[in-house]
Amino acid sequence: MESRANIISSKKNKRVKISVIPGHFATNHSHINYYVDMTSIKTSHKMAKEAARDLALNYTGTHIDTIICLEGTEMLGAFLAESLSDSGINRGEDISVITPELNYNNQMIFRDNTQSKIWQKQVLLLISSASTGKSINRAIDCLKYYNGNLAAISAIFSAIDESNGILVKSIFSEDDISGYSTSIPSECEQCKQGKKVDALVNSFGYSKI
Protein backbone atom coordinates (compact mmCIF):
# COMPACT_ATOMS: atom_id res chain seq x y z
CA MET A 1 0.00 0.00 0.00
CA GLU A 2 2.77 2.40 0.88
CA SER A 3 4.04 2.24 -2.71
CA ARG A 4 0.80 3.92 -3.80
CA ALA A 5 1.19 6.84 -1.42
CA ASN A 6 1.28 10.40 -2.72
CA ILE A 7 2.58 13.34 -0.71
CA ILE A 8 0.40 16.45 -0.66
CA SER A 9 1.62 19.79 0.67
CA SER A 10 -0.63 22.43 2.17
CA LYS A 11 -1.49 25.22 -0.25
CA LYS A 12 -0.67 27.75 2.46
CA ASN A 13 2.52 26.16 3.79
CA LYS A 14 4.62 23.75 1.75
CA ARG A 15 6.32 22.49 4.92
CA VAL A 16 3.06 20.95 6.14
CA LYS A 17 2.33 17.64 4.40
CA ILE A 18 0.08 14.60 4.44
CA SER A 19 0.28 11.30 2.61
CA VAL A 20 -2.73 9.85 0.74
CA ILE A 21 -3.15 6.26 -0.39
CA PRO A 22 -5.87 5.31 -2.90
CA GLY A 23 -7.84 2.13 -2.28
CA HIS A 24 -10.85 0.70 -0.47
CA PHE A 25 -10.87 1.41 3.26
CA ALA A 26 -13.36 0.91 6.07
CA THR A 27 -13.78 3.11 9.13
CA ASN A 28 -16.16 2.52 12.03
CA HIS A 29 -19.03 4.13 10.16
CA SER A 30 -18.07 4.65 6.52
CA HIS A 31 -16.09 3.45 3.53
CA ILE A 32 -13.56 5.77 1.90
CA ASN A 33 -11.50 5.56 -1.27
CA TYR A 34 -8.40 7.26 0.15
CA TYR A 35 -6.54 6.74 3.39
CA VAL A 36 -5.28 10.11 4.60
CA ASP A 37 -2.11 9.63 6.64
CA MET A 38 -1.50 12.54 9.02
CA THR A 39 1.19 10.81 11.08
CA SER A 40 3.88 13.43 10.38
CA ILE A 41 1.71 16.33 11.57
CA LYS A 42 0.81 14.40 14.71
CA THR A 43 4.34 13.25 15.56
CA SER A 44 6.84 15.75 14.11
CA HIS A 45 7.15 18.73 16.44
CA LYS A 46 8.41 20.97 13.63
CA MET A 47 5.54 20.16 11.29
CA ALA A 48 2.98 20.31 14.11
CA LYS A 49 4.22 23.77 15.05
CA GLU A 50 3.94 24.98 11.44
CA ALA A 51 0.44 23.49 11.13
CA ALA A 52 -0.65 25.07 14.42
CA ARG A 53 0.46 28.52 13.28
CA ASP A 54 -1.62 28.15 10.12
CA LEU A 55 -4.72 27.04 12.03
CA ALA A 56 -4.32 29.84 14.57
CA LEU A 57 -4.70 32.45 11.84
CA ASN A 58 -8.38 31.47 11.61
CA TYR A 59 -9.03 32.50 15.20
CA THR A 60 -7.32 35.83 15.80
CA GLY A 61 -10.72 37.27 16.74
CA THR A 62 -12.09 34.25 18.62
CA HIS A 63 -11.68 33.91 22.37
CA ILE A 64 -10.55 30.40 23.33
CA ASP A 65 -10.21 29.07 26.89
CA THR A 66 -9.74 25.37 26.20
CA ILE A 67 -8.71 23.11 23.33
CA ILE A 68 -10.17 19.61 23.36
CA CYS A 69 -7.92 17.25 21.39
CA LEU A 70 -9.29 14.19 19.64
CA GLU A 71 -7.61 11.44 17.62
CA GLY A 72 -4.03 11.97 18.70
CA THR A 73 -3.84 15.72 18.12
CA GLU A 74 -2.38 16.61 21.52
CA MET A 75 0.96 17.93 20.24
CA LEU A 76 -0.78 19.98 17.56
CA GLY A 77 -3.19 21.23 20.20
CA ALA A 78 -0.35 22.37 22.48
CA PHE A 79 1.29 24.34 19.68
CA LEU A 80 -2.09 25.75 18.68
CA ALA A 81 -2.63 26.97 22.24
CA GLU A 82 0.81 28.59 22.16
CA SER A 83 0.10 30.30 18.83
CA LEU A 84 -3.29 31.57 19.99
CA SER A 85 -1.79 32.89 23.23
CA ASP A 86 0.89 34.76 21.30
CA SER A 87 -1.46 36.86 19.20
CA GLY A 88 -4.98 38.09 18.58
CA ILE A 89 -7.75 38.24 21.13
CA ASN A 90 -6.08 35.50 23.23
CA ARG A 91 -2.79 37.36 23.64
CA GLY A 92 -1.19 36.48 26.96
CA GLU A 93 -4.05 34.24 28.06
CA ASP A 94 -3.51 30.75 29.44
CA ILE A 95 -5.24 28.10 27.31
CA SER A 96 -5.95 24.60 28.61
CA VAL A 97 -5.33 21.55 26.41
CA ILE A 98 -7.22 18.40 27.40
CA THR A 99 -8.30 15.05 25.95
CA PRO A 100 -11.51 13.15 26.77
CA GLU A 101 -11.51 9.63 28.09
CA LEU A 102 -13.61 6.86 26.53
CA ASN A 103 -15.63 4.78 29.00
CA TYR A 104 -16.74 1.15 28.60
CA ASN A 105 -19.69 2.30 26.45
CA ASN A 106 -17.28 4.18 24.15
CA GLN A 107 -18.70 7.47 25.42
CA MET A 108 -16.48 10.52 25.89
CA ILE A 109 -16.13 11.62 29.48
CA PHE A 110 -14.06 14.02 31.55
CA ARG A 111 -13.01 13.31 35.12
CA ASP A 112 -13.81 15.69 37.97
CA ASN A 113 -10.32 17.22 37.93
CA THR A 114 -10.65 18.44 34.31
CA GLN A 115 -14.33 19.40 34.19
CA SER A 116 -13.55 22.94 35.36
CA LYS A 117 -11.61 23.43 32.12
CA ILE A 118 -14.88 22.98 30.19
CA TRP A 119 -17.66 24.32 32.39
CA GLN A 120 -18.84 27.61 30.79
CA LYS A 121 -15.54 27.86 28.88
CA GLN A 122 -15.03 28.81 25.24
CA VAL A 123 -13.87 25.57 23.64
CA LEU A 124 -12.06 24.81 20.39
CA LEU A 125 -12.59 21.23 19.24
CA LEU A 126 -9.52 19.82 17.45
CA ILE A 127 -9.80 16.61 15.41
CA SER A 128 -7.46 14.91 12.98
CA SER A 129 -10.01 13.90 10.34
CA ALA A 130 -13.64 14.83 9.74
CA SER A 131 -15.06 12.71 6.94
CA THR A 132 -18.73 12.42 7.94
CA GLY A 133 -18.97 14.60 11.05
CA LYS A 134 -20.13 11.80 13.35
CA SER A 135 -17.07 12.00 15.61
CA ILE A 136 -17.56 15.75 15.90
CA ASN A 137 -21.23 15.29 16.81
CA ARG A 138 -20.31 12.81 19.53
CA ALA A 139 -17.78 15.27 20.94
CA ILE A 140 -20.30 18.10 20.84
CA ASP A 141 -22.82 16.00 22.78
CA CYS A 142 -20.12 15.44 25.40
CA LEU A 143 -19.29 19.14 25.49
CA LYS A 144 -22.95 20.06 26.03
CA TYR A 145 -23.17 17.62 28.92
CA TYR A 146 -20.32 19.42 30.70
CA ASN A 147 -21.80 22.84 29.88
CA GLY A 148 -19.00 23.99 27.60
CA ASN A 149 -19.46 26.55 24.81
CA LEU A 150 -18.33 25.37 21.39
CA ALA A 151 -16.48 28.32 19.88
CA ALA A 152 -14.58 26.69 17.01
CA ILE A 153 -13.83 23.42 15.21
CA SER A 154 -10.47 22.64 13.62
CA ALA A 155 -9.20 19.62 11.72
CA ILE A 156 -6.08 18.52 9.92
CA PHE A 157 -8.26 17.10 7.13
CA SER A 158 -11.97 17.69 6.65
CA ALA A 159 -14.45 16.60 4.01
CA ILE A 160 -17.20 18.71 5.59
CA ASP A 161 -17.52 22.49 5.68
CA GLU A 162 -19.48 22.91 8.88
CA SER A 163 -21.00 21.13 11.83
CA ASN A 164 -23.79 22.33 14.10
CA GLY A 165 -23.67 25.74 12.44
CA ILE A 166 -19.93 26.22 13.02
CA LEU A 167 -17.42 26.27 10.17
CA VAL A 168 -14.80 23.52 10.24
CA LYS A 169 -11.41 25.13 9.61
CA SER A 170 -8.92 22.62 8.24
CA ILE A 171 -5.44 22.53 6.78
CA PHE A 172 -6.49 20.07 4.06
CA SER A 173 -9.89 19.47 2.48
CA GLU A 174 -11.35 17.06 -0.07
CA ASP A 175 -10.43 19.63 -2.72
CA ASP A 176 -6.80 18.65 -2.09
CA ILE A 177 -7.55 14.99 -2.89
CA SER A 178 -8.97 14.58 -6.37
CA GLY A 179 -11.90 12.15 -6.40
CA TYR A 180 -12.09 11.69 -2.63
CA SER A 181 -15.39 10.12 -1.57
CA THR A 182 -16.98 8.68 1.52
CA SER A 183 -20.15 6.62 1.84
CA ILE A 184 -22.04 4.41 4.22
CA PRO A 185 -21.11 0.74 3.67
CA SER A 186 -24.45 -0.17 2.07
CA GLU A 187 -23.92 2.49 -0.62
CA CYS A 188 -20.20 1.90 -1.26
CA GLU A 189 -19.58 1.63 -5.01
CA GLN A 190 -16.41 -0.40 -4.51
CA CYS A 191 -18.33 -2.95 -2.46
CA LYS A 192 -20.98 -3.16 -5.19
CA GLN A 193 -18.20 -3.84 -7.70
CA GLY A 194 -16.92 -6.68 -5.55
CA LYS A 195 -13.68 -4.96 -4.54
CA LYS A 196 -12.32 -6.19 -1.24
CA VAL A 197 -11.46 -3.78 1.57
CA ASP A 198 -7.72 -3.08 1.64
CA ALA A 199 -7.51 -2.08 5.27
CA LEU A 200 -9.42 -1.07 8.39
CA VAL A 201 -8.59 2.50 9.40
CA ASN A 202 -9.05 4.67 12.47
CA SER A 203 -7.29 7.63 14.08
CA PHE A 204 -4.32 5.43 15.04
CA GLY A 205 -3.63 4.25 11.50
CA TYR A 206 -4.54 1.29 9.32
CA SER A 207 -4.46 -2.49 9.51
CA LYS A 208 -4.28 -4.43 6.25
CA ILE A 209 -6.79 -7.20 5.69
Q: What is the total domain count?
A: 1
Gross morphology: globular
Distance between the termini: 11 Å
Write down how many β-strands occur, each being a DSSP E stretch of 2 or more residues: 14
The CATH class, by name, is Alpha Beta
> Strand count, sense and closure of the main sheet?
6 strands, mixed
Instruction: Report strand %.
Output: 25-35%
What letter string, H or E per element, gives the SSE order? EEEHHEHEEEHEHEEEEHEE
How confident overall, as mean pLDDT? 93
* CATH architecture annotation name: 3-Layer(aba) Sandwich
Number of helices: 6
State the CATH topology: Rossmann fold
Contiguous runs where pLDDT drops below 50 for at least 5 residues = none
| Percent helix | 10-25%
CA-atom Rg in angstroms: 17 Å
Structural class: alpha/beta
SSE diagram, text form:
Blueprint: E1 6-9, E2 17-26, E3 31-37, H1 39-43, H2 45-56, E4 66-69, H3 74-86, E5 96-98, E6 101-102, E7 108-109, H4 112-115, E8 122-130, H5 134-145, E9 149-158, E10 162-163, E11 166-173, E12 182-183, H6 189-192, E13 199-202, E14 205-208
